[in-house]
Amino acid sequence: MDTLKVGIVGAGGIAAQHGIAWNTNAPRGEIVAVADISEPRAHAFADRFTGGKAKTYDGIESLLEDPAVGAVDICLPHHLHTPAILAAAKAGKAILCEKPLCTSLEDAATLDAALKASGARFVMAHNQLFQPSLVEARRLLAAGALGRPYFYRSVEAFQNRGALAATPSTLPPGESPWAWRNDPARMGGGEVLDTGWHATYRMLALANDRPVEVQAMTERFFLPDVAAEDTGVLLVRFASGAIGELVSSWAFAAVGNRHFEVMGEHGSLAGGGAELLHQLHAWPDPVARPFAPVHSFTAEVTHFLDVVQNDAPSLAPFETGARVLQLTLAAYRSVAEKRTMILPENPLEAGHPAA
Ligand SMILES: NC(=O)c1ccc[n+]([C@@H]2O[C@H](COP(=O)([O-])OP(=O)(O)OC[C@H]3O[C@@H](n4cnc5c(N)ncnc54)[C@H](O)[C@@H]3O)[C@@H](O)[C@H]2O)c1
Predict the structure, then answer these.
(1) Torsion on CA atoms 60, 65, 68, 74, rounded to nearest 10
(2) CATH number reported for the structural domain that contains residue 186 in this entry
(3) Cα(36) to centroid of ligand 1, in Å?
(4) Using CB atoms within 10 A of its CB, is residue 317 exposed (0-12), middle (13-18) or buried (19+)?
(5) For ligand 1, atom 25, which residue shows the shortest CA distance?
(6) 300 in a structural domain
(7) CATH number at residue 30
(8) Which of 110, 127, 144 is the last residue in one of the domains?
(9) 225 and 160: one domain?
(10) Residue with the nearest Cα to atom 29 of ligand 1?
């Protein structure tokens, strides 16, 4: 099998996890290029992850001209996802893109058309899908272990002390990741669009169902200087009638870092990074199944390679990204208007107030 040669676009904070992930997947994948507007960051990344072998570029346009590059891994600030995906699709490269997909449904429609026209492979970087407790919970749910699911909770929450600090010392000189995150035009939202994105796609993966309504509340509890919310709570109704509660925060963490719960007809499941608990209604105590930790970014790149090299169906296709964006933007409108929003079947159509 040919090695998939990738160009990393954006060599900031999260790119380091992608660097580990690509190297762990060698020789199926190889980092051959890296682009960053900050030359020191591009060089630092190339040195750390490729021993200085990868070519460095100042932007995606010049990287895409490199004939060695067969795929791009987009790790840019949110407002740059749309132009980067469009450029990569036009160049016919396979695309792995960090969350969020983009920051507006208008952009999502433009991307949808461009990706369909180019036929470029596209996978959202939804690393948390590969947490073993979630994989096993989805297997049990699909096998009907809980009967009809009634309620889902998905939590992505931690106290973000890094946001209080200046540019992290791990980064070479350049703009702090909090500069663009504090600029609504570049961030596109607040914590719910950023970290809450994980909680949202996790809930959609558990429910395997279409969300039809959302109500939301947001608050800024812990980070007085961020431009938008640091915490969001969303109530979601699914087509089946099941209800979801989504909690995401940069202000607090959940006990034991539990990521999800599912309550159903026959019992309940609860999972986090290290274990899955399973309790049917008559059982006095839950049964715990432990899991060895996985590096979810490595699993995400393995999946991307499976899609590109083996034609595997994508677990994180464009449609999921569009659905998460539709739900998130409708949640923001629910907050602004203090109303329940109805979510159209087409994920590219915006939610609207209930009549
Ligand atoms: N999956 C996760 O758990 C996770 C965690 C953190 C961030 N992310 C996502 O990763 C993306 C990047 O976030 P981050 O925290 O790494 O941000 P960051 O600010 O640390 O890194 C962004 C990098 O992009 C570079 N850049 C900016 N403009 C550029 C341009 N025009 N051309 C080339 N490079 C440019 C910056 O110099 C910087 O090095 C975001 O989409 C974010 O939501 C995902």
Answers:
(1) 20
(2) 3.30.360.10
(3) 10
(4) middle
(5) 10
(6) no
(7) 3.40.50.720
(8) 127
(9) yes
(10) 37
Indicate the average pLDDT of the chain: 95
Ligand 1 centre to CA of 8 (Å) is 11
DSSP 234-273: EEEEETTS-EEEEEEESS---GGGEEEEEEESSEEEEEES
pLDDT of residue 85: 98
Where among 99, 127, 155 does a domain terminate?
127
Q: Examine residue 302 and state whether it is found in any structural domain, yes or no.
A: no
Q: 59 C-alpha to center of ligand 1: Å?
A: 13
Residue 168 binned pLDDT confidence (cut-offs 50, 70, 90): very low
Which residue is listed with tokens 């409708």?
330
pTM above 0.85, yes or no: yes
In order of 112, 235, 265, the CA distances from 91 in angstroms are 16, 40, 50
Whether residue 244 is contained in a domain is answered as: yes
- Asked if residue 312 belongs to a domain, the reply is no
Q: Quick count: other Cβ atoms within 10 Å of Cβ 311?
A: 8
SS3 130: helix
User: pLDDT per residue over 105-138, tens digit each?
Assistant: 999 999 999 999 999 999 999 999 999 999 999 9
Q: Which residue has the tokens 């792995």?
A: 96
Pocket test for ligand 1, best of 8, 9, 14 (most atoms within 8 A of CB): 14
Q: Give me the residues paired with residue 270 across strands.
A: 261, 277
> Ligand 1: residues whose CB is within 6 Å?
10-15, 35-38, 41, 59, 75-78, 80, 98-99, 125, 127, 174-175, 177, 194
Measured CA to CA, the distance from residue 90 to residue 95 in angstroms comes to: 11
- Domain containing 73: what range? 4-127
